[in-house]
Amino acid sequence: MRPALAGALVGVIGLVVVAVVGSSLQRLVDTPVRWGTTWDVAIAASELAPDGAAPVNASSAEPDREVLLSDPDIEAAAVLLYDEQITINGIEAISMTLDPVKGGITPTVIEGREPRADDEIAVARDTLGEIDVGLGTSVTVRSRSQVSEEYRIVGVIAFPTIGEPTAVATGASLTAKGGDRLLLGDVSEGDDVGTPYVVLRWAPGVDHDEALTRRGVEESTGGFEESAYGPIAPPEVRGLEDAQQFPLLAGAALVVLGVIATSHALIVTVRRRRLELGVLSALGFTPGQRRTVVAGQATTIATIALVVGLPLGAIAGRLVWRAIAGSMGLATDAAFPLALLAMGAIGLVIVLNLIAAVPAQRARRLRVTDALRSE
């Protein structure tokens, strides 16, 4: 019984790990908020023109807030100044500032919180590592205008991509007024300034494509040749997209190995326990009861494997996903597919009993005299 139990236990643990990692991976790929994009579309500020009413002052790229506030299609909006170079304690980083207009659009926070005061800054994981300081530390931030100010690091964020894919673990975020302290976006200081966007989150039920079409805007999926950008996965997430089939293949391999190991162990167990089955038959066990003994053994194996394997697999899956997500500077909380795990548990009991059907039938046909004589 031990080999069968070991095979089933390893199979359960492996399948739970695969299920947790696979579900977490799928959630990551399907959820732009987890990799920094907390809006549905980013539109170049000078291009936004819903229904012919320009909500942007073309000369200053300052949005007409009244138009944005009154637009029923828009649930939340903010002005984003993106892609301006700064240094933090001498370490170069790309920056963004967010100025809320309507609703709540904030950076994706991995640890700590988003900047709220003018002297606060949040940075991505790799940038924090290069600076080599912790949360709550004051740092010196210098802009391309050579303006230096002191800021306090209050959080770790996932840095979003607009246009060309940008590493999610590098960059920094400030409030709009925090950026003003550094003269970010000041065109009088030269041409190498950040790009202003209006980032929008559509209201529930709004068709995204129709909403953009009414505003005369065409959405792009990469590069800077267009004026509007939907969620664009960073390189780290794109790499994981290519690996999405791996959990399925690994799960299939574990199922096959578990079935083979458990089948062999159950068959061998019946063969080795011929004497015990013969004694039970001599004591009055019917052929049906002998078959029930083998089926009960299979159910016991499945139950023990589930009771022990489910929590161990969940812990292992969480640790594996934490290592994967943490290495990319993303949130490390894992997804637990409870419905899938429940179906898998029921399936395991059924499969093991189906596997046990062959040795159970052999036990049922066992002749008592032959079993006792062979021993």
Task: Summarize the model shown.
With 375 residues, this protein is α+β, with helices and mostly antiparallel strands.
Q: Uncertain segments of ≥5 residues (pLDDT<50)? A: 48-61, 220-226
Q: How many beta-strand segments? A: 13
Could you give the order of the helices and strands? HEEEHEEEEHEEEHEHEEHHHHHHH
The largest sheet is:
6 strands, mixed, barrel
Our count of domains comes out at 2
Distance between the termini: 20 Å
The CATH class assignment of the largest domain is: Mainly Beta
Number of helices: 12
Rg, nearest Å: 30 Å
**CATH third-level topology of the largest domain:** Barwin-like endoglucanases
Overall mean pLDDT stands at 80
**Architecture (CATH level 2) name of the largest domain:** Beta Barrel
- Estimate the helix proportion, in percent: 40-55%
Oligomer status: single chain
What portion of the residues fall into strands of 2 or more residues? 15-25%
- Lateral strand order in the biggest sheet: 4-5-10-7-9-8
Give the structural class.
alpha+beta
Outline, from the CA principal axes?
elongated
Tell me the layout of helices and strands:
Layout: H1 2-30, E1 41-44, E2 56-57, E3 62-63, H2 65-70, E4 74-88, E5 91-102, E6 108-112, E7 120-124, H3 125-131, E8 138-143, E9 148-158, E10 172-175, H4 176-181, E11 195-202, H5 208-214, E12 219-220, E13 228-229, H6 235-241, H7 245-272, H8 274-282, H9 287-328, H10 338-355, H11 357-364, H12 368-374
Parallel strand pairs: 5-10, 7-9, 12-13
Antiparallel strand pairs: 1-11, 1-13, 2-3, 4-5, 4-8, 4-11, 6-9, 7-10, 8-9
Helix pairs in contact: 1-6, 1-7, 1-9, 7-11, 8-12, 9-10, 9-11
